[in-house]
Amino acid sequence: MPIPYLLTTLLYTFVALLAAADASLVSMSVFSAFPALRWVRVHFITLGILSQVVFGLLPLLTASLSKKVRRDIWLTLNAGLVALVAGFGGMNHPMIFTGGTLIFIAALLLMLQLWNIRGGDAPVSLKFYITGIFYLMVGIIIGTGLFLNWSDALHIKVPLEAHIHANSWGFMSLVFAGLLVDFIPMVTGKPLASKNATAYIFWGMTLGAFGLVLGPWLGGSLPPTVAGLVLHISATIVLLVSMIRTLKQSGNLNSAGGWHLVSSYIWILLPVMMAPLLLLGILEAGPIESTAPQALIYGWVLQFGIALIPYIARRFFLKDEKPQLGGCWGSLAAANLGSVLVWVSIFSGTAEGIVYGIAFVFYALAMIHPLKELAEIARDGLKKYETV
Question: d(Cα 376, Cα 26) in Å, to the nearest integer?
Answer without folding.
Answer: 31
